[in-house]
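Lab notebook, entry 382. We have the chain sequence and a SMILES string for flavin-adenine dinucleotide, and the next step in the workflow is to get a structural model of the bound complex before anyone spends time on docking refinements. Request logged below.

Task: model protein plus flavin-adenine dinucleotide, output structure tokens.
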Amino acid sequence: MDFRLSEEHQALRDSVRDFAREVVAPVIAEHYEQHTFPYEVIRQMGKMGLFGLPFAEQYGGMGGDYFALCLALEELARVDSSVAITLEAAVSLGAMPIYRFGTEEQKARWLPKLLSGEALAGFGLTEPGTGSDAGGTETRAVLDGDEWVINGSKAFITNSGTDITALVTVTAVTGTRPDGAKELSTIIVPSGTPGFIVAPGYSKVGWTASDTHELTFDDCRVPAENLLGERGRGFAQFLRILDEGRIAIAALAVGLAQGCVDESIKYARERHAFGQPIGTYQAIQFKVADMEMKAHTARLAYYDAAARMLAGEPFKRQAAIAKLHASTIAVDNAREATQIHGGYGFMNEYPVARFWRDSKILEIGEGTSEVQRMIIARDLGM
Ligand SMILES: Cc1cc2nc3c(=O)[nH]c(=O)nc-3n(C[C@H](O)[C@H](O)[C@H](O)COP(=O)(O)OP(=O)(O)OC[C@H]3O[C@@H](n4cnc5c(N)ncnc54)[C@H](O)[C@@H]3O)c2cc1C
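Result returned:
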């Protein structure tokens, strides 16, 4: 039992920490305020190799592991979550399905540019009428000769409409199973395909410097070979992708929770009330102590889930626990950090205001807290 980081993991964590402080922090508030995508920051993250972290070198990856990705996400989110979710979605939702399930041709065509950060991919599962209940998917794909014809729409798809988005993988109903259930498959739709329509970006409460769109597919035709993996395996594929992704979101949530501690300590030292720094009052110290306790225990939860995953052991329950706990405490810490900042905490120019706005989605995206509880209870045999 050893939770200390290897030298490689430590070096990665330190370099991403420096990058977040020196490159992301000075520019992100402006992007957040203007709702603009930080292309230059993303370009530099690509140059650092962050988009290739958990992938084999033969496809242009860094030959690292999924835990390395989690460490990078934690350090980025400690400063800003829009940048962190862009990386999370690009790697664990965008490139990973192709890496895990794609043919050698698909990998050779798409992975080098996705892993270098030169291009981004989205993962289209959620629809306007169904999210948690992904079995309710209504988007359809029909094989017409050597082409899939796709009709339907997807909601809230991250990284789907940037200038560098190369493709979206879309889950669609491709038939009916012998038991009458829907047959779901996953299909790669390259950006710019006629009939693939990207709506203008949403007006969001948080993650405002990240890219999120509703997508429509109107007789959108792609070659039959764009099927990802086997026909009918769509359900199993996205369950695997989401199980892993929960560890990544937990890491991102821990980063936000730790960023709240950082900012609170800084502010509590500077701000005076009743003749003393507010940090000298035990009421403030106890808030910070509780915030640190929560960030620490949530970190252990995602380290444990990642360790099990890398050891090839079952990790579904632990990933759900990590995601549920980390997102809950991220919201707690953001609320308390804002409280410590008083009125300034309600001003967008303070990082804690961004943390507060960014925290809520962590209890919703990649499986709501209710869904995590369902997964945990089911895994306990209930
Ligand atoms: C900014 C942003 C980015 C996103 N990025 C992506 C992306 O890249 N790709 C993608 O596919 N999706 C993406 N999503 C979608 C996200 O994963 C869904 O919003 C989420 O899974 C919840 O689905 P829903 O919004 O349809 O809510 P619903 O499923 O309609 O749930 C509504 C409420 O009902 C609860 N509920 C539902 N079923 C049950 C039940 N059986 N028992 C108890 N409670 C239940 C839920 O927990 C929730 O509280 C994104 C969302 C946002 C906001």
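Notes for the group: The mean pLDDT is 97. Worth checking against the assay data. The radius of gyration is 21 Å.
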